[in-house]
Amino acid sequence: LSLVKSLVSDAADIKNSTQHFTEQLSHAQSEIDQLKMQLKKSEHEMHFDALTGVLNRRAFNKDIKGLVEQNPQGLCLIITDIDHFKLFNDTYGHQLGDQVLKAVAKRLGENNQTGIKLYRFGGEEFALLVPQSQLARARHLAESMRRSLEKLVLKDKRKEQRVDNIRASFGVAQYQDKDTDSTLIERADKQLYEAKRLGRNRVMPIT
Predict the structure, then answer these.
(1) Which pLDDT tens digit goes with each residue over 110-155?
(2) How far is CA 103 from the centre of its chain?
(3) If DSSP codes are grouped into helix, strand and coil, which group holds residue 114?
(4) Contact call for residues 127 and 77 (beta carbons, < 8 A)
């Protein structure tokens, strides 16, 4: 009888210990899941622009460096800048200016082919990396984006304002032998500057 009582007691202890261990394991798994979610959120915040939701400059720097070093042939870079963006902020306020940035980012990201990535380059500038392409095709893509932006219409219901004069200039460059990420950016930026100099709302180079 004493042995039976001892065995029953041991079995109860084992059951309690197992239940306690299971609860601890479940709690630990929950903490791991939370940490994974936090890590994923941190990684997202590290590589994505908070306002527009597109990739940010940090991600751009990492990606262009990797492409230039590992798979540069046919790589094209498009840099675009919203024309007279300061005027939107001065005329309509920063909130509507932010809406313009969001709308432009969304429109630039629409219908992009697989492999093409869009980044907020800084301020009102955006960049697109177009791998395994060529200058003529990248220019055509930039031109279609420019025309698409011209059709954008934003409405501020609170102030009953309508914004339909969104325009952008584009500079395009293709990887050349011995290019670095810096020289490729410099040539695309030079073409963007030329588009601005010639009157804005255009893609450079012309051919």
Answers:
(1) 967 778 999 999 999 999 999 999 999 999 999 999 999 999 998 8
(2) 14
(3) coil
(4) yes
Running DSSP on this structure, what letter comes out for residue 201?
Answer: S
Q: Tell me, what's the pLDDT at 3?
A: 65
pTM recorded for the entire structure? 0.81
Paired sense of beta strands 125-130 and 117-122, if any: antiparallel
52-82 pLDDT tens trace: 999 999 999 999 999 999 989 999 999 999 9
In the DSSP assignment, the letter for residue 115 is: T
What does the DSSP 8-state code read for residue 14?
H
67 vs 58: CA distance, rounded Å: 15
Among residues 124, 125, 160, 186, which one is catalytic?
A: 124
CA separation, residue 129 to residues 60, 61, 68, 73, 111 (Å): 8, 11, 11, 13, 14
Q: Count Cβ neighbours within 10 Å for each residue of 63-87 and write b for 16 or more, e otherwise.
A: bbeebbeeebeebbbbbbbbbebee
Active site residue 124: yes
Burial grade of 137 (CB within 10 A; 0-12, 13-18, 19 or more): middle
Taking the C-alpha atoms of residue 206 and residue 97, their distance in angstroms, rounded to an integer, is 30
Pure H helices in the chain: 2-47, 57-70, 85-92, 94-109, 135-150, 181-197
